[in-house]
Amino acid sequence: MSSDLLFHVVSRRKWPKLNKGGQYKPEGFDSETGITLVAPKNINQYLNEQFEGRKNLLILVIDKARLTSSLSTDKESGIVKLKAPLQLEAILDKIRIDCNEEKKFDLQVESFV
After folding, report:
1. Could you tell me if residue 106 is inside a domain?
2. Euclidean distance between CA atoms 84 and 72, whole angstroms
3. What is the CATH number of the domain that holds 65?
4. How many domains does the chain have?
5. CA 16 from centroid of its chain's CA atoms
6. Beta-bridge partners for 6
7. What is the pLDDT of residue 2?
8. Nearest to 2 by CA among 52, 73, 98, 97
9. Following DSSP, what letter does each residue of 21-61 receive, concatenated?
10. Cα 67 to Cα 85: distance, rounded to the nearest angstrom
C-alpha cells in the first residue's frame, strides 16, 4: 500500500521567509535539485541522516494529490524530488519536532485505512 502523504523538513525559524506568494521554496532551490520529499516509511532514516541533533524543525505534511508538478523517486533511497516550488495548498499540516536526548529522531507514522 502506498501512502498519499509525503514529508518535507525545514527549520521552524526559516519557514516564514521561505513561503511567499502561495508557494514554498527552500534555500538554494533550483529546478535542477528540486525539493526533497520523503515517504512516511523513510522519515526516521532521513531525519537521522540529515538532521541529527537538530531541534526546532517543522515537518510539512504534504498531500500528493494536491501537488501540481510531477515527482521523481529514487528507488534506492526512497527520496522523492519535486522539481517546482511547493504550492502551499498541498501542505496539510506543519508539525514541530526536536531530536531526543540521544540526538536522534524516532517518529511513529501509521496509516489507517
Report:
1. no
2. 11
3. 3.20.170.20
4. 1
5. 16
6. 62
7. 55
8. 73
9. TTEE--TT--TTT-EEEE-GGGHHHHHHHHSTT--SEEEEE
10. 10
Where in the sequence is the domain holding 39, given as residue range(s)? 5-97
Bridge partners for 71 per DSSP: 82
Expressed in angstroms, the distance from the first to the final Cα of the chain is 10
Q: What is the pLDDT of residues 71-107, one digit of tens each?
A: 998 887 778 999 999 999 999 999 999 999 999 998 8
Calculate the alpha carbon distances from 13 to 27, 44, 45 in Å.
13, 21, 23
Spatial distance between the Cα atoms of 1 and 98, rounded to a whole number of angstroms: 29
Q: What pLDDT shows up at residue 1?
A: 38
pTM comes to 0.90
Dihedral Cα 8, 10, 14, 20, nearest 10 deg: 0
**51 CB contacts (<8 Å, ≥6 apart)?**
9, 57, 99, 105
Inter-residue contact 23 to 88 (CB < 8 Å): yes
Residue that the C-alpha cell 496509516 belongs to: 111
Q: What are the residues facing 102 on neighbouring strands? A: none
Q: Contact, 26 vs 35, CB < 8 A? A: yes
